Amino acid sequence: AGELAGAAEREAAAWLAPPAPVRLADVVPAPERVEPDPGADYLLPTDAVIRVSADPDALAVGEQLAALLRPATGYPLPVTDTAGPTPTGGIALHLTDDADLGAEGYRLDVSADGVRIGARTAAGLWHGVQTLRQLFPPSIESATPVGARWALPGGSILDRPRYPHRGAMLDVARHFFTVADVLRVIDHLARYKLNRLHLHLTDDQGWRIAIDSWPRLATVGAASEVGGGPGGYYTRADYRRIVAYAAARHVTVVPEIDLPGHTNAALVAYPELAPDRTAPPPYTGTEVGFSYVDPASERTYDFVADVLGELAALTGGQWLHIGGDEAFKVPADVYARFVERTQRIVAGLGKTVVGWHQIAPAAHTDGRVLQWWGTSGDDPVTADAVRRGASVILSPGNHAYLDMKYAPDTPIGHDWAGLIDVRRAYDWDPATHLTGVPTDAVLGVEAPLWTESVTTLAEIEFMLLPRLPAIAELGWSPRSTHDWDSFRRRLAGHGPRWTAAGIAFHHAPEVPWS
Ligand code: TNX
Question: Does this complex have an ipTM over 0.90?
Answer without folding.
Answer: yes
